[in-house]
Amino acid sequence: MFSYCLRRTLAAVPVMVVVALFVFLLLRLSPGDPAAIIAGDMATPEQLDRIRETLGLNQPIYIQFFHWSGELLRGDFGTSLMSNLPVTQLMAQRLEPTVSLALLSIALSVVVAVPMGVIAAWKHGSLIDNAIMSMSVLGFSVPVFVIGYILIKIFAIDLGWLPVQGFKRISQDGFGPFIQHAILPALMLSTIYIALIARMTRASMLDVLGEDYIRTAHAKGASEKRVLFKHALRNAGVPILEVIGTGFALMITGVVVTESVFNIPGLGRLTVDAILSRDYPVIQGLILVTSGVYVLINLAIDLSYALLDPRIRYQ
Amino acid sequence: MATPFSRRFSVARRRLLGGMTMVAFLSTCGAISSLAAAPAEANTLRAVMHSGLRVLDPITTTAHITRDHGYMIWDTLLGMDDKFQPQPQMADWSVSDDGMTYTFTLRDGLSWHDGGEVTAKDVVASFKRWTARDGGGQMLMDHVESVEATDARNMTLTLSSPFAYVLELMAKPSSVPLFVMPERIASKSPDETLTVEDQIGSGPFTFVADEYDPGNRVVYEKFEDYVPRKESASWTAGGKVVKVDRVEWINMSDAQTALNALNSGEIDFLENPSTDLLPVLQANPELTIDKINELGNQTIGRFNFLYPPFDNPEIRRAALLAMNQTDVLASLIGNPEFYTPCDSMYGCQTPLATDAGAPDSLAAGGGTEAAKKMLADAGYDGTPVVMMQPTDAPTVSPQPVIAAQLLRQAGFTVDLQPMDWQTLVTRRASQQPPSEGGWNMFFTNWYIPEVWNPLVNPMLNGRGKDGGWFGWPNDAELESMRNEFAKATSDDDRKAIAERIQQHAFEQVTYIPLGEYSVPATWNNDLSGILHSPVPVFWNITKSE
Predict the structure, then answer these.
(1) Residues near B520 by Cβ (< 8 Å), separated by ≥ 6?
(2) Regarding the domain delimited by B64-291+521-543, which CATH topology (the fold level of the hierarchy) does it fall under?
């Protein structure tokens, strides 16, 4: 198991190198100049040249790349061109909001969607099944920001139960303020994942429910609940887990709309801000970290298969 | 097989878990309801500004949000009042009889946020860094022989040639004011931006470094040792009396979210609400809506003088005749309550306002036929006008679309090229031909205090490729008149020269002013004392319990 994890982790290194090179070149070849953004409207071309020189942007691209990769090998992601702060500090500031929101959303999605999918499969073809699948289609179809604004209108503006925007950290403010600020964004974010996981659970369960061992379990007199949750769901779990894991990775990297609607200072907004201001070191750092997250989550998903299916063993 | 014990245990465990879940749920609900009802601290003012703060150096950048940040933590040597008159702020001044020597004397009680007194050496270092970056400062330095600290409280500035705008430039409120910083910080290269550690000033607020989240949130606290002037506040002059303990600027990228936050009382002040959302805010009696920046903004179109077709003044004049401010402003702002056509390059509410040289058609159109004729007479060969159109910035997005149509109606061929704003600001610095990554025309906006006289107005700089602003008109006559303006001492002389400059600028079509607009700010009624000023300032504001 250990050697498998090590091999998988090492296999990610060339992927990360290619990602780093690709991102670096893409950014340098795309239009936009951080010096012009820093200098503002009044700057003359001479002033822009001087700022480029100070930032090292006037050097050939390959020298810039070697300089950056050298820093990276020392664990230094560089310094933001705009704020003059270390990229690691900027990412660390924004990590907790995104990760905690993603965890809450994925937990909410699993808690709601898996039973929905199981029930839909169990009552296959019934009114309940149709209702759950219709809700699933709705969840896929309605843009998340619309759901966000509806939630804000009902729970924050009309009822006044929850705040309109903002974020409180568990680490600083405690769980109560965190949940108060995170519940609406989590609901908004989880809508599409509830739809996705419910559909996937239903489909996997339908496959499994037709198997012989399910019939055997029924013949042995096992209760419906035991058959569904102990025999069927566990065997249907591998594809569901895959969707949940991928969904979590997508949440970490793709929550920018939710973060904007609820004004959450997370990684999504940091990414958009960095792209708009051509803050190269921040963009590069974020993409590398994101790639790392994907690699780790995929590894975690693969390892978790063994827990669900004892036939799977990693050498 | 489950034993009776295990079954009992299972039942008990389920009950226990159920009970715990219920307790947790109720606790959470209790926490939620109590926290939702918790009032905001009375002495914390929460504001959503026009953008997030990312660059912390108000000398290196001309970004307005950084300038606004500068006013929070740094004080200015001089201030400017609502009559456009320089006033003492950190220092008073005296001028020698021949007008060639200025002595600035620091007032009592000026201290840095980290301790220690402000000295004249700090002022000299700050002045030098400012003149290295600011266009007005550079112009001033062309006439300066020396600047030195004669003792701890006095700085002497000696001119090498007559220059009458020393005080006006040193007091200008935007876009790069003369902020005074500690000598160790002001000694940094002006091309190197200041860091979080450098946010030490002597202004009315201190910067809370621990809570700074670039682009998202910045926090200021009242500087208890700040000694305000006795005079009442007016623009950036007078007493900066801080009446709240803490100010938080929170950036909200979504206009609807900012509106909801203001309506629900989560924020107190919204600097720049979207004009299409104003009716929603106007319907809330608990909010005040007012133009704190009464002078507003000027929107402009600028040509590239280096390449055809706009290297030909006749063709530039044809383009000027084709323009129509009302169409552009209606598209940009919509509600006529918030925009005004204006023929003056200096703004219509400034001492130098004039309509000299402006064609009659500029404000409301009607010049298309004349433009067609002039274009034909000029021998326009159909060279496409490469017009840059930013699609991601609502305040500069509509102008090119309308202008392109107006130019097409007059017979121009226009190549409207969509791009994001950051690409535009990069590309406009290119002096390459339009076919090789250059450009012919772009649009932007200015605060009126950034254009209100020929010295500070960057579009009236005629220095060409060497020191001119984007577009690079090389106009010796314009420069000569600006020098004349810089030496004029009486208001009448200044007014007369400014009129001549504008007349000339319209003849050469140095740029096209496309009118003025001013979007009101909005705040909760529990705030009072918000000052009318061309830059948003947070002194003098009281937040009631």
Answers:
(1) B273, B278, B289, B290, B291, B292, B338
(2) D-Maltodextrin-Binding Protein; domain 2 (3.40.190)
- Give B357 to chain A, closest Cα distance, Å: 25
Enter the CATH code of domain A92-265+294-308: 1.10.3720.10
Question: Angle B491-508/B313-322 helices, nearest 10 degrees?
Answer: 100
**Closest residue in chain B to residue A55, using alpha carbons only:** B192
Cβ of residue A254 closer than 8 Å to a chain B Cβ: no
Q: Do A277 and B254 touch (CB under 8 A)?
A: no
- Output the pTM of the full model: 0.86
Distance CA(B488)–CA(B34), nearest Å, equals 65
Domain segments of chain A as ranges: 92-265+294-308
Contact (CB<8Å) B422/A149: no
ipTM higher than the 0.85 cut: no
Has domain B297-517 been given CATH number 3.90.190.10? no
Q: Can you tell me which residue has the tokens 């919509």?
A: B334
Q: What is the pLDDT of residues B349-377, one digit of tens each?
A: 999 999 999 999 999 999 999 999 999 99
- For residue A152, the chain B residues in CB contact (below 8 A) are 260
**Residue of B540, B533, B495, B485 lying closest to B173 (CA atoms):** B533
Beta strands in B281-373 (DSSP E): 287-290, 297-303, 339-340
Q: What tens digit of pLDDT does each residue of A93-103 get? A: 999 999 999 99
